[in-house]
Structure formats: structure tokens, C-alpha cells
Amino acid sequence: MNKIDFWVMLLSDMLSIAVGIYIGRKLLSRLFAQREKDAEVRSAEIIKNAELTAENIKKDRILEAREKYLKLKAEFEEDTNRKKNILITNENKLKQREQQLQQQADQSKRKEAELDQQKAKLDQQQESIGKRREEAERMRQQQVEALEKIANLTAEQAREQLVDALKAEADSRASSYIKSVVEEAKLTATKEAKKVVIETIQRTATEHAIENCVSVFNIESDDIKGKVIGREGRNIRALEAATGVEIIVDDTPEAIIISGFDPVRREIARLSLHRLVQDGRIHPARIEEIVAKTRKNIEDEIVEIGERTVIDLGIHGLHPELIKMIGRMRFRSSYGQNLLQHSREVAKLCATMAAELGLNAKLAKRAGLLHDIGKVWPEEAELPHAVLGMELAKKYKEHPEVCNAIGAHHDEIEMTTLISPIVQVCDAVSGSRPGARREMMESYIRRLKELEELAMNFQGVTKCYAIQAGRELRVMVDAENVSDEKANTLSFDISQKIEKEMQYPGQIKITVIREMRSVAYAK
């Protein structure tokens, strides 16, 4: 190959390379132009979509704002109308009050005019009386002078003789008059006192109900009795142990008898049975759980009863503890008479009698409601219930007149106010009416409580319930501290102490119950 051919080939190759480069550049420029065009189209579509989205969002926001505006406008109009109605009502009340005040003012003006007329008449009468007195004095003087001439006595001598005679006559008449006035006052006082008492009794209507010692729990079918008794009687034993009452399941159709002297225990047992029957799950653990919840509900109900009582009687400002004790009265009795009904009755009687006598009826009603508050104090106290009630009233800032009336209604302290004898009288009226109280009931309940308290004094005793009208005493002991041998000894010791310290008819059966439970939890 010569040099010419070499250079020709070299130039040919270089020309081919240059043409390739030129063609590649043209192709690249077209590709870039196409991509740029596609990007512009795509960006235009994105912008268009974004504008559509923004427009939709804008419309949604406008609709939401409009709905919110309409809602706020409706609320504003409703609130405005309500306030407008209140203003109209208040304006009507003000107008009525202005009319009443105007009427009262007119009545006052009429009364003033009548008083002026009466005053003018009185002035005329006084003037006429004065003239008559002057005329009478002149005539008396003339008669005195005439008598002096006839009797040959001076006026002073005649006056002395006349005074002596008048003194003797006045003494005789005065003694007779005083005797008649005293007798008339006694008769009038007795008559007025009877009138006040009779009117008070006639104007006071009360419910007269005497609590008994048995509650009846109605059931839908006798099949439920088997569930209540449980296997080998474990359910009924657990229920009796938890509530302290006796559950009697006999042949009485569709009924279970709950027996116990404490109304609170009977009510807890009745409500617990109702919940257990509705739930359907009746076993010892469930029974204890339901009884605990029911006992808590009864405590809440006691507060509600107290609040409802003071509202019904219109008594305000009582301390919450006093209201709670008033609620406890519902489940206590005094000589067989429900204590709350008795206190309500005494409160109404006191208010009526105080109003008849022109005294403070509100304070009298308050003292009548609280006069037996010492009977429901949960802690043991050596004071009489009247003195204890007075101390409680003082503790909770009651009025001194109310405190004195509470403490003096059984003559434990001296009466210092007029309300005190009213409370004492009304208490006697409420308690002494035929059928109100039963002395045997109160002594019976007291004996059962003493029986339970006697057994509770023994070491290891956790619970104690007197059942079967006091003929049986069930004593629950702590299984960890009292063994089986000690349980036998404990029943004998309790029986010996009952024989020595208590008086009772028949015999009392002492049953000591020792129950061991083992509880574990699977986690």
C-alpha cells in the first residue's frame, strides 16, 4: 500500500466518523426535542388536573363554610328567640308585680283614708267626751254642795266615810271576782288547749303502719326453690350467713319467707334474692358478691330516703349526716311503730300546733323530725337517746331551741323554750294513739340485740345472728383461730353466759359454725 492509498483510507474513515457524528447529533436533538414536547404536554395535563382539583376543593370548602354559617345562624336565632322569650316572661312577671304593687298601694291609700276618717271620728268623740266630763264635773260639784248642806258634813268627811264603805265592798267583790276569774281561766285554758290539740290532730293525716318481722319474696315457679336451697342446702346456708336472716322455704306456693327482727337485714336479703333469681347464677361466692353490692345499695337508699323526707317536709339546711340518720329511721322501730313515720307525724303535729299558738312553725317542725335522732346513732353510747340526739344536733350546728327541744322531750334536761313542751306533747300524741306502739315488740327486739352482742364478746366470733324469734343463735367463728374442739367449748360457754345474764322464755339453741375455705387463682 502506497501513501496515497493510506491517506485516502484515512480520509474516508474520518469522513465516515464525521458523518456518523453529524447524524447522531441530529438524532439526539430530535429525541431531546420530542422529550421536551412530551414533558410540556405532561406538565400542562398536571397543571390542568391540579386546577380542577383546586376548584373542587374550593367548592367543597365554600359548601362547608355555607353549611357552618347556616348552622351558626340557626343556633344564634334559636338562642336569640330563647332569650327573647325569657325577656318577655320576665317582662310579664314585672308587669304582674307592678300591678300587684299598684293594687297594694291603692289598698294602702284606702286604708289610710279609712284611718284618717276613724281618727277624725275619734277626735270628735274625745271632744264630745271632754265636754260631757266638764258638764258632769259641774253637776257633781253642785250635788256635793247640796249634800253638804243636807248632811251637815264637809266633802272631805263624806269622802272618808264613802271610801271606807267602798273599801269594804270592794274587798268583798274583789275576792269573789278573783275566784271566779281564776276558775274561768282554768276552764278556758283547758278548753283552748283541747281545741288546739284536736285541730292539730284533725289537720294532720298520716299513714299508720306497724312493721312486722317477716317479709315475703314472691317467685314465678316453685322450681326456683331448689336453686335457692342448692346442693345439700349450701346456697341457703350461705345466704343466711351473709345476711343474718332466716330463709324459710316450705310448701307455700310461689313464695319464700324471709324472717328476721332487723328490717335492714330483711330488705338486703329480699333484694339479694331478687337479683340472684334474675341472674340465674346461684352459688355461695355469687351470693356473697350480690349481698355486698346490695348492702352498698341500701346505704345509698338510706341517704335518698333522708333527702326525700326533708324535701317533703320543707326542711332546709340540714347537715348531710343528720339526713343520713333520718334515712336510717325508715329501718328502725320504736315500740313497734316505724321510727321515720313517727318522726314525720311528730314534725307535722309540732308545726300545726306551733302555728296555732303563734310560734315559729319551721323550728317546731325541725325539732319534731329530729327529736328521736339519738335512736339511730350507729355507735354504742351510754347516754339516753334524747341527750345523745341533743349532742348530735349541737355537733351539726342546729338552732339552740331545736337542741333544747330534742334533749328535753323526755325531761332529761330542763325546758328553756316554748317549742320544747310542744315536741314533748306531740311525741306523746303520736305514740299514745290506739295501735301506734307495741311494748312487747320493743322488748323483743332489745332482747335479740342483747343476745347477739353477748355472743360477739367471745374471742374468735366474727358474726352472730339471732333467728327463729330468738330461739336459736347462730355464731360464725374464724376457722383459723377457732378449732373444732374449741367450737364445742365456745357453744357451751355462750349457753352458760346466756343462762346467767339474760331472761328469756323457753330455751335457746346455740349453733357454732366453723367453715374452712381454700381459694386459689389460675393465671
TrEMBL record:
- Annotated membrane-spanning segments are 6-24
Q: Name one GO cellular component term.
A: plasma membrane
Pfam families documented for this protein? HD, KH_1, RNase_Y_N
Compartment annotation: Cell membrane
> From which residue to which does the signal peptide run?
none
Q: What is its main location?
A: membrane
Return the CDD domains for the record.
HDc (cd00077), KH-I_RNaseY (cd22431)
Q: Composition bias, kind Basic and acidic residues: at what positions?
A: 107-137
**Domain HD positions:** 339-432
Keywords attached to this Swiss-Prot or TrEMBL record, sorted alphabetically, are:
Cell membrane, Endonuclease, Hydrolase, Membrane, Nuclease, RNA-binding, Transmembrane, Transmembrane helix
Q: What class of enzyme is it?
A: hydrolase
Which EC numbers does the record give? 3.1.-.-
For this protein, the record's NCBIfam families field holds: HDIG, RNase_Y
Please report the name of this protein according to its UniProt entry.
Ribonuclease Y
> What is the primary gene name for this protein?
rny
